[in-house]
Each structure stands twice: as C-alpha cells, then as structure tokens.
Design brief:
The chain has about 240 residues and is of the alpha+beta class. It is about 30% helix and about 35% strand.
Amino acid sequence: MKIHHNFKILAAAAATAATSLNATAALTQWQDAVSAGPATAATHFTIVSTGTQVDVGTLTGDRAFEFIINATSKATPSSALLGTFEDAGGKQALKFDQWNATGNFGITSFGVEDFYTTVASPSGVDTHVVFTFDGTKTDLYVNGVFQTTVKSAANGDVALALTGMQGLGGAFNAGGYVDPLQGSILGFASYDSSLSVGDISARYAAFAAPVPEAGSTALMGLTVMGACLVRRRKS
C-alpha cells in the first residue's frame, strides 16, 4: 500500500511538472514570435503579479499592446492590465474587467469616460490579449480572434494615448496602483505601430502550439521512478 501511495504522489508530481514545463515552453514560443517582428517598443517577459511600473516606449500615432495573462474576472469592481493617471502617459487604462465588475474588457480615459465592450474576460485561464490602434479605431483581439472595435457611447471610435511610463498589472497613480489586476501578466509587449490580423494570429498560434516534449519527459521520468519502486518491492 505504501508503494502505491508513493506512486500516486509521483504521478501527481509528474503531472504538475509537465504542466509547468509546458506553460514555460508555450511562453518561450510566444516570446520567440514576438522577437521575430514587427519590432517592439518594449517587452516585459518577467511574470507580474502586483503593480509594476514599465516604460512602454515613446509611442505616436498607431500603437498596440499585447499580453499573456491569467487573471480572475469580477474579483474587484475594476481591474487594469495597463494604465496611468499621469497626463504625460496618456491618462488611460486598458481594462481586463471594466467598472463595475462587468466581467468584460474595456478602456478607460480617466476623468473622461469608461468605454465598455460585451467581450467577456476569460477567468483563471492563460489568455492572449491584444489592443491595437490604427490611428482611427481600437480593436480588441482575444486568443488570436477579433472580438470588437471599442466604442465611446457618445463619440464613436476610441483612440489610444498610452505612452511612456505605465503601470503593468494596475493603473499607476502617484506612486501606487489603482484597479489592480487579480492575477498575473505572464508576458507583455508594446508596439509603436498597429498589429495586423496576421501578426496577431501568428503570435497566438505560437503560444497555443502543442509542446508535447515537456509532458513526455515528465511521464518518462514517472515511468522510470515507478519501475524502480516495483523492483524495490519485489526485492
């Protein structure tokens, strides 16, 4: 019985290791796709689980922001992927969960308007998200698929103004963070250009591509350890 119990522990450990290795490999594949171009203005490939200040680059005209995230929707009234209250940074935020706990993506121009969508924020799963602005309109893509063009209730298309220093995982405000994300940003990239449908789908495809090697390695290790336990029991 003890051998069986140990084998179950090993099985659980191997499954956890395989999941972790696969997630890491998927992020590496996505990072490689990002590095292949179009050129980025900035990247942040370290996991962010609390508000962190980043420089997204001096962005003018067209721009885009790309995220790999795993966060909880409706955990707070509002949560931001990226943003700042500072005028110099554009005084905007890209929302994972728009006010007030809508469970949907959105954009906020602080002191002006909350821009709403009907696109649900995937909760508790690794998700690829892109906001891209072509100089006229801002489009939202989730997992490589176009979802909506973000609109103002009164003024039509929404322009992105985010530039320079921003809060990642929360909107930066006077040394602190407002609307903190309830979860983690696993990777981030900004661009001083819009991203095409092909660019976005290629990046998501890289992230979503199967990575069987990691799982196979872990399972092979489990098999070897299990065989050793059986031999010990027989002896």
